[in-house]
Design brief:
119 residues, four-stranded antiparallel β-sheet, 0% helix
Length: 119
């Protein structure tokens, strides 16, 4: 099992910045991809960004140029730097880890952290 703990959410004004962290523990070997998803009230969970073990990143169009994902491999931690935040970025942000064990790919989720962008 991989245990994920997010931190760093909160209330910020439009145009502001926040940095989220997600630390993986437990049997956290062979994590091939870590990602951030978000879910706004009444909406489906959506992929925000991801980063592979090789450092390849992917971003949703809505956050390109504003959000940056990074990964500290020695700490099994992934970060999400969010700049120029907009009210539409308000959501619960979830960390996700995809782990490969042999030929089995397993997905793990954190508990989520609330990000509210409001004046």
């Amino acid at each position: 099992q991989v245990h994920l703990v997010e931190s760093g959410g909160g209330l910020v004004q439009p145009g502001g910045s926040l940095r989220l962290s997600c630390a993986a523990s437990g049997s956290s070997f062979n994590i091939i991809t870590m990602a951030w998803y978000r879910q706004a009230p009444g909406k489906q969970r959506e992929l925000v960004t991801s980063i592979t073990s090789g450092g390849t990143t992917n971003y949703a169009d809505s956050v390109k140029g504003r959000f940056t994902i990074s990964r500290a491999y020695d700490k099994n931690t992934v970060y999400l730097q969010m700049n120029s935040l907009k009210p539409e970025d308000t959501a619960v942000y979830y960390c996700n880890a995809a782990q490969l064990r042999g030929t089995t790919l397993s997905s793990f989720w954190g508990q989520g952290t609330q990000v509210t962008v409001s004046s």
